[in-house]
Amino acid sequence: MMREFFYPSSIAVFGVADTPRNLAKNIIMNCEDMGFNGDIFPVGREEGSINGRSILVNTDALPTGIDLAVILVPASMVPEAVDACGRKGIRHAVISTGGYREFNDQDNEAERQLLAVARQHGIRFIGPNCIGAICTQSGLCTPFNPMQPKHFKSGNVSIIAQSGGVSTQVAYHFSDEHVGFSKIISAGNKLDLGEVDFIKYLMEDDDTDQIHLYLESIEKGREFLQPVKRCSKPIVVFKANVSRTSARVAKSHTAALANNDSVLDGFLKQAGIVRVRDIHDMTVCAKALRLPPLRGDRLAVISFSGGFAVILGDACEAHGFECPPLPRKLLDEIEEFRRAGVIKMSNPMDFGDVHDIRALYFALERCLSLDYIDGLVLSLTYSPRLAQMFGKSEDFRAPLLETVKQLCLQKRKPISLSFFAERMYIDELKRRGTFPIFTNPEESVRALRMLRDYWRRRPGEHNNGNE
Amino acid sequence: MMREFFYPSSIAVFGVADTPRNLAKNIIMNCEDMGFNGDIFPVGREEGSINGRSILVNTDALPTGIDLAVILVPASMVPEAVDACGRKGIRHAVISTGGYREFNDQDNEAERQLLAVARQHGIRFIGPNCIGAICTQSGLCTPFNPMQPKHFKSGNVSIIAQSGGVSTQVAYHFSDEHVGFSKIISAGNKLDLGEVDFIKYLMEDDDTDQIHLYLESIEKGREFLQPVKRCSKPIVVFKANVSRTSARVAKSHTAALANNDSVLDGFLKQAGIVRVRDIHDMTVCAKALRLPPLRGDRLAVISFSGGFAVILGDACEAHGFECPPLPRKLLDEIEEFRRAGVIKMSNPMDFGDVHDIRALYFALERCLSLDYIDGLVLSLTYSPRLAQMFGKSEDFRAPLLETVKQLCLQKRKPISLSFFAERMYIDELKRRGTFPIFTNPEESVRALRMLRDYWRRRPGEHNNGNE
Asked: Closest-CA residue in chain A for B250?
């Protein structure tokens, strides 16, 4: 029953007008821009047309068999619109309209009316006070603010966000970071469907590999925990509304109540959920989770700059990692590749004066083979001219990324890769998408922390009690 | 005497060869790419030419009156090169060669020799084991790794970095963030000139408005403090090497010894220095310091998304700010501008359903005028289509930035501005450079924290004892 919310074969949009400031017409334009292939029926109070589609003023004119309605009419007219949907056999709706409990926190008559009409017709709905759903695979894009869906990057991370604005920003930021997403769901007041329903659906959704949540509150802890604990896909949570200051505005925003943050933290750990601190870290975590498991705290660190080896050492310690000494024999073998030979090898390892890609491959393979090394952090320089110095190949990146990827698979250990370079080069590498690329060295260590958290917390995994 | 290091009228580069893997020739190419106008004389052991400049094999052939030598020959040959400089009247040198105390931590004979020859000729030098200096105003670019100096953004922040790799990354990252820099200095082993000398010079340098430092150690605390305490330009420090793990590699990198971090923290506070945690935050702080003073903890927050109002509330509290309630009358007046009128106003203020730029200007002006508001956080949406909805202007950004800037100047209070938008739009706004733009809402609050730290710590300012 949930599939029609994301892959409808046809939709009706209520509240459309051919005027410059009409918001509902943006829903139609967003779907068109994103390549939605199904039929779209605009419904409004006055005749007109939107991109060649006539606005229906009489809902009787709607065909039967429409999968989904998106409703953005004044709150007082919502029950009537829902009733019209029911009469036309529509069983799924996104109620975008706001002005319910988030505005008036007393017992809410308008919500009761809405729920009654929907129940009467067996209609399930997302909202009210929401922007609904985006699905990059189907092209559905129900937000009523004008977006740029052509820029969206398609992939297999699905995101549930308790805020329309945040879900929009998530769509932009994931795309900017070249982390593809499948669905973004913003459920608003959750009068009918809530996070738990969406998590259950995404657990079974073939287009979803990871489930990320932006939450301002968790109301029904036990209900939430039950599906989460048997979910085999990683679940990642960014929980906002953790302060007195934000509680004031969160209440009027999504009717969310703040939770005790340390209680929540324990709750998330118990549920096997990785907690992240902001939207950017959702993308970092999404990339980290593409790497092989990290099953311990012991890292080898290789940096093409001494300064970044220092910064990485600080980051490792800050994130609870160790950099154990490497065998003297191995360090000697690596040192033999060097030119000037001025830098002494240690862990973190300053590769600054080794200009030989074979030395790098040798070091990566040997370090990952050590049974007391759980993962590797690799920080490389990149500039076009330096790349030329690296050997015969004009572009060492494609074979480098392939080698690193193969080593990860072979050794079943993660290599967390970042470049210090101009952003245009880093973006170019991220865009390739063949292997996760982190933005800077510190971020690559933070990513491994998230990966370690995930494998420690994963249900059924040995928990070594270190947390 | 220091000016010649940054604005030399001519330079000699020692160690140049016309071979693919020669590093010294990159120095010449970097200077050329950056538009250095002075003469450049390559010196090497074999004849050849670099971009039409003949390599001099006999230093007697060098003209007199050269301002600066950049030396990248094997360590054993450095004294001879320095002696040649002395004989030709060169009094300033960058010694790029490594292989000194950072490699052999015992009493270092090679360094003693180098120092003796330099003293004998009255030569002052940066290094050894360094990449020297970049100056966007003169076009000098002595790093020996191939760079892309055409992409560098010129401006008035000068940076001293105890790591060549970090200084390179600083150049890229400042430029990517559209924060212009004047000089980047990487002093390596600081056998002759060190941070204190550079700080003293930059304090008087007309092209420098802010001094930023990347440090792995502070060796002579009292010497360091003395110029810093009378510096009227802001000083910003990113101190790495704060862990046992990094101490191992830092020692072999720049011969730096770790300092006790909490002692250091107190020391920096006392010196009126703003401490930041990474390279990116150096750019954030550089932008923050362009805003008017922040003289307290009380902020008004305006967000075009309820979710970001919540996130901003969390950020304000995390960074030690308050969001005091605003007068009911003012909130009512702002609410009158709204369309649907579903969102209740508070502080943080959710401007989500106010689509009127006049309402924004009204709210900004009134909030900043309140005597119990010290600064303002403004988080806006931006997309081209949404911009069109904002009024007659196709592009509301130019007048918006100008209005915000004027309000800051008029009220002598900062407005910390960020957009939630695709990165391309944010970059476009940053590039304009008319007013500081932060990358995301959380960053805009972090920026205000740095600004507050600066004004609290500033020598001669009232310290209200809250730190």
From this structure: A310
Q: Touching check for A51 and chain B: CB below 8 Å?
A: no
- Helix pair A306-318, A441-457: axis angle to 10 deg: 30
Whether A246 and B306 lie within 8 Å, measured CB to CB: no
Give the full edge-to-edge strand order of the sheet including B124-126: B39-43, B10-14, B68-71, B92-95, B124-126
Quote the pLDDT of residue A231: 92
CB B231 within 8 A of CB B203: yes
User: Does A313 contact B389 at a Cβ distance shorter than 8 Å?
Assistant: no
Q: Tell me the C-alpha distance between A85 and A12, whole Å.
A: 9
For residue A301 the two structure tokens come to 């660190």
Rounded Cα distance, A249 and A245, in Å: 7
Phi (first) and psi of residue B223, to 5 degrees = -60, -35
pLDDT digits (tens, 9 = 90+) for B431-455: 988 899 999 999 999 999 999 999 9
The two tokens of residue B412 are 């002598």
- Say what the pTM is: 0.93
Write the pLDDT tens digit of every residue in B125-160.
999 999 999 999 999 999 998 888 999 999 999 999
Give the distance from residue B260's alpha carbon to the nearest chain A alpha carbon, in angstroms.
14
Provide the 3-class DSSP secondary structure of residue A387: helix
- Is residue A241 left, alpha or beta, with left meaning phi > 0 and alpha meaning psi from -120 to 50? left
What is the Cα–Cα distance from A112 to B113, expressed in whole angstroms? 88
Region for B178 from its dihedrals, namely left if φ exceeds 0, alpha if ψ lies in -120 to 50, beta otherwise: left
Q: Return all residues near B434 (Cβ < 8 A) that are at least 6 apart.
A: B401, B402, B405
Q: What is the ipTM of this complex?
A: 0.90
Closest partner residue to A346 among B165, B248, B383, by Cβ?
A: B248
Quick one: chain B helix, strand, coil %, rounded to 5? 40, 20, 40
In the numeric block, which tokens belong to residue A320? Answer: 């609870």
